[in-house]
Amino acid sequence: MSFDPITFQVLWSRVVSVADEVAATLVKTAFSHVVRDNHDYSCGLYDAEGRMLAQSTQCTPGQIGAMPRVMKDFLARYPAETLAPGDVLITNDPWFGSGHTPDVFVAAPIFRRDRLVGFAVNSAHHIDFGGRLSAPDARDVYEEGLIIPITKLATAGTPNRDLLELIARNVRMPDKVIGDLRAQMAADWVGARRLVELMDERGLESLGDLSVQIMDHTEASMRAAIAEAPDGAYENAVTLERPDPDGRPIRIVARVEIAGDRVHVDFTGTTGQVDLPINAVTNITYAYTVFPIKCALHPHIPANEGCFRPVTMTVPEGTCLNPRYPAAVRFRTSLVYYVVEVIFGALARAIPDRVMAPSGTYPLWLGNFAGRFDDGRPFVLHFNAQGGTGARRDRDGVSTLVFPPNVANTPIELLEVEAPLLCERKALVPDSGGPGRQRGGLGQEVVIRNVAAQPVLASVIGGRFHDGAPGLAGGGPGGTGVLAVNEGAPLGRNAQVLLKTGDAVLMRFPGGGGFGDPRTRDPGLVAADVRRGLVSVARAAEDYGVALGAGLEVDAEATARLRAGP
Length: 566
Prior knowledge:
Distance between the termini: 72 Å
Number of domains: 3
Low-confidence stretches: none
Mean pLDDT: 96
Radius of gyration: 24 Å
Number of strands: 19
Oligomer: single chain
């Protein structure tokens, strides 16, 4: 059965709204701030064949992009005919999920009149899943926490008590971890009820016809967008500033081939897997391969499995983008986010006006703090904050945006409630946005002090400590990152340190790269940036060729002389 255009759009919107209700339930019932406040989760609805029908509006690209493959692995382990109402499946295995143990995927089959009609699936980043606390020097996955193979979290509506007790015994914050797992189950069950209600209301016996029409429509739209880009093979490579333990550079190499209505990305030539916790399994590599392609070519259509069909990839086994078990993977975002940069850079050779300059928001910066309050209560806190994104052809970069994962900065008030920590400074860093016709987004500086009577373990990862995010089309680089303890010398690397009472950690997040020649930027915009404290008078003259008067107004004659050059 084919639906007329109006009915089709109404039903499609309703299905997306059900996915959003799964997300709303998860957020409202979650115990940890990572889900509740940072919004590090994703939700999707699938048809009876395990194909993604819709995703929630709020998602992280890494989780939702990996989720269709996770669903197929769920069904390979538990075929549809073996499932019953109330069953719930679970895994956090990095090689089946989105690449590291904190991301837990939970799926519930949806039955209507004893017939399987679909699945509700969600993933959530847990505050802790055992192992060493976010160790930046881990050498294999065994150091990184408890691994749950694909199994049942609930059978016929009864939670798996043995599994929950096993998990609780292996984590630092069992109340929050188990609470979030129960929230994940509840969210899926709410989604199941709402989808059945929709089917009853509209008289749908199955989701099959609607699913096919949604995915085919999306696929056709995606293929049409790809076909508008010029055919060709576009190559790019990025070298991470941190070498492997043997001192060898780590490179991501990509060849983006556009042929008609298809895109193929070949990562041949990428560095082999490394003895660092930054390796990225193929599920998340594919997720961050599709993401920049959709952003550049067709950003507005709602995502579902139809978006993925025209995009394929080749990634050799044993590389850092397809590591063999048991490679360390905990901080795979320190590497895989660069896939976005390398693909945008390749596409810039074909469609320069539709990509953004590299961002200071990757590699991911994350501060993990663990210890005890003075009354003995344990705490684990994830502090999310980022720098500036790269500029685009028609607009400046965004300051302090968490990109590309689409999660929120951790509110300072939350940090000070959830842990015995005090934030003494949180401010934009002037001149950190890369100069350009469009300026890169600014980074920020955060200082966090331990005010507990006992030490706090701080594990901080970051990057761009030595070289800022490059500009694009003549734009300049963004400011670099800084990590230091007690105003000491910059560490220049990721670190795990024990903060004694009164010790403070400083994190200065990098800025984004600029787009276009900075000396073509509107002088009025430069002056406005100076008045807002975003750009200094000196850098306005040096980078933009804009001279300002005593009142910070543009001196047109002096500016003309500066821009004319010697």
